[in-house]
Design goal:
It is built from 3 helices and 57 strands. A hairpin with an 8-residue loop joins strand 49 and strand 50. It is mainly beta.
Length: 778
Amino acid sequence: MKSAHRLIILAFVLGVAAIRGALAEAADSAATAKVAPGSVNPGGVNPDSAKRASGEAGRAEATKTIGGIVVDEAGAPVGNALVSEIAASGKNRGVVAKSDAAGHFNLEVPVDAQLGHLIAKFDGGKRVGLVYWNSREQAGPPRIMMHKAREIAVAVTDASHRPVAGATVAVAARLPWGKVATRFAPIRLVDQQQTDAGGKAILHAPAWLASTCVFAVKEDAGFDYFLYRKRPGQAAEPLRLARDLQPVINLGERSERATAPFKLPADDARPVNFVLGGIHRLRVKVVDERRRPLAGIPVRLSRLERPDKGGPAELDGTDSLEATTDEKGVAVFRILPADIEPSLRCSAVFSAKAEYVFSEQVELDPAEKESYVRCIARRRAVLQVHVTYPDGRPAAGAEVSGHSRAFARDFITTWNALTDGDGMVWVMPTELDAYFTVSAQSGHFAAPLVAGIARVEAPRAPLHLVLRPATRVHGTLTLGKDRRPLANEFVYLTQRDDAYSKIPEDQRLTRRPAPEPLSIKHPGKTDGQGRFEFFAAPGRYYLDYDLSPLIASIVSNSSFMTNVSLDEGVEPFEVKDQTEVEINLHRDRPMVTPLDGRVVQAADRQKGVPAALIRAAVADPRTNTRMGIIQSGADGAYHAERGPCEMLLEAQMQDHTLAGIVRVGADDTKVDIPVGPAVTAHGRLVDRSGKPVVGQFLVYGIRFEVPKLGFVVALQQHAGTNRKGEFKLVGLSPGWKFDYYAEIHPPGTARSKLAHLGTVSPQKAEPIELHDVPLSVD
């Protein structure tokens, strides 16, 4: 792999793309985890118990059951609560389960569902509960706690003040999404109703969530909405991701202060009055790259904005802004308000099955009552996988994993999905010819890894994988001289892919040497006795945990079972036709140790510094700090858990006025962090002709060379150039050397790279002037 590509992977490990990728990662990585004997199946879901139920369009679909419990604030069971699912796509399927007297419920969801939210309503919606569900992370059946709901009374009229009956009204909020910070959590509809004959309705929303938007829409009548302001103090929520240390750079973003006068107060209790004042009709024609009309393409509108609303409507999860193209390739929208801002985005609705995709900014003609736009869709290579058992039965709910590599841009994607009721799944959507690998597993059955080439202009026939009885790979994870079992630790069964090198050269996608192999990781978790278990098809594997490989080796000449105890640093192992393979993993040092200390003033170390943000970084990304971002207490004290590795520890105020960095040894348990006035460096980024470079994203931090892997930029921060090309590097700690880079995207590649701009080494708490900094891109 080229060093530039290594750099991007290493930067990702350290969090440079933490915000950009966090939501996508959550959706793509929610596979059912393998669990040890005696542990609870995540989320109460049993993939082997698929059954048929009535689907959205009345057709039969395969489902599985999520079993959970509804309770009140005191923990007492709540009966007769109505529970439904808000899927990862944001859609509510409308399937409802009712809790019994003991609060228990069993909700049918699609057999290929992986994650989402469960929402419970009681007493007509006056009490509501919400919980995030993820098949990988769930330690047991979901528990929904009910709270008093926020009530929003709405009234909908037309331009003549006449009530509008049958209008759809809804409220949206940011929903908690695993470990993603709330400010970046997805926006979903939490309640939706129809107006009565008087044009009125009551909406209910979880009072503890930040509502973002409330809207009303009716075809041929119009669309209206209001946005909510951010709650006071919302910006000061606990920070969990490295990139939260800097504001998100978006030069076009309007500030909350400027838009607040047009928005409703965050907890506004007044009735909301909507006016549907007519429509601007929009016809969208979708064609392929040969300008041929495409029928059956779902089209979605976004970034809809009306004057004096404080921003565009946030409408994830509603069908109101979707339409499907007819046989002439035309989709018609009859809900856009007559006074809509002329610029909006038109996209194909995302789906793994979608053969064509597009996303374009379109301009309407506000002087007319109707607009017509044409969008050109690009074809994708979509791999259809059919998974069955040896007798031909479809393997509903089987887990399909793999990756693809488009060599034209060296673009790598990974996936992890569940099959539907027919054992089908659609994976690997890419707009480029790509090499792929795919494997499948369900319960005690598995199918070996299969590799091939997928071409956009020559769609492949469905790939057929057959699940057969798998080899049980199991063992115990222990720690220390007394070999104490480690409970509830993630362990990964990892399979290396070197199949591309075996493809004949005339069938490959590039004449370049075969790239370094990628890995497919299958996650599992140890039980209370430190035991783990996987079921594997024939292939070459290794075991790892804590993101650092513990490569295991076995004696492979046994056709039945091999039983060995291994320490760190041994070789991969081969699964052939063994019934069982036992590999016991051991670590001499704990994976997590406590770290305590104080953030103190450098000039007077007796004085603590409260509310400082503390984060850690390592020079070698193959090790793991296991630390998120924490905040010092009122007296400057902090407590954290850290991995057994050498690291840098930084404390910085959120306004970047104070900062300090210290080195921490692998065995240190108490470390104080002195902070002093931080340094700001100013500069102007220019091109080769001396003109300012506008809107350029910059990365800066402490550079470490990593043998055989290139380099990493630790303790990263981010900046951006303004309209004059000016930028500021803030929060620099005196006594340390910082390198700064421009993140660029070379033509013809999907990967970005860092172009080195310079080095700044503050010695005193004084501003530094960098003057004009040239950006030279070959």
